[in-house]
């Protein structure tokens, strides 16, 4: 595992088309922005390990296999 330190406003670039920006650091919480193609699946770690049916029941409806939270990197 690679561990990097970043300050607010700094970025990480993954491959050719994924950019992660540290938006805000407040106490022990970090807000990040992810810019990636729509076809890249992005999930919180705790949700990625749960079966889709469990997530669906917890969310009160049917859940897709993944949630796309990023827009295409221009």
Automatic annotation (TrEMBL):
Residues 50-74 are annotated as: Disordered. It holds the Pfam family CsrA. GO terms for biological process: bacterial-type flagellum organization; mRNA catabolic process; negative regulation of translational initiation; regulation of bacterial-type flagellum assembly; regulation of carbohydrate metabolic process. InterPro entries: CsrA, CsrA_sf. Keywords: Bacterial flagellum biogenesis, Cytoplasm, Repressor, RNA-binding, Translation regulation. Residues 63-74 have a biased composition (Low complexity). It comes from the Bacteria. It is found in: Cytoplasm. GO terms for molecular function: mRNA 5'-UTR binding. GO terms for cellular component: cytosol. Belongs to the CsrA/RsmA family. Homodimer; the beta-strands of each monomer intercalate to form a hydrophobic core, while the alpha-helices form wings that extend away from the core. A translational regulator that binds mRNA to regulate translation initiation and/or mRNA stability. Usually binds in the 5'-UTR at or near the Shine-Dalgarno sequence preventing ribosome-binding, thus repressing translation. Its main target seems to be the major flagellin gene, while its function is anatagonized by FliW. This is Translational regulator CsrA. It comes from Rhodopirellula europaea 6C. The gene is csrA.
């Amino acid at each position: 595992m690679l561990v990097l330190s970043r300050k607010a406003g700094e970025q990480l670039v993954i491959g050719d088309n994924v950019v992660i920006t540290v938006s805000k650091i407040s106490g022990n919480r970090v807000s990040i922005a992810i810019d990636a193609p729509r076809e890249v699946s992005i999930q919180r770690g705790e949700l990625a390990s749960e079966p889709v049916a469990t997530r669906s029941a917890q969310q009160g409806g049917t859940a897709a296999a993944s949630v796309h939270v990023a827009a295409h990197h221009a």
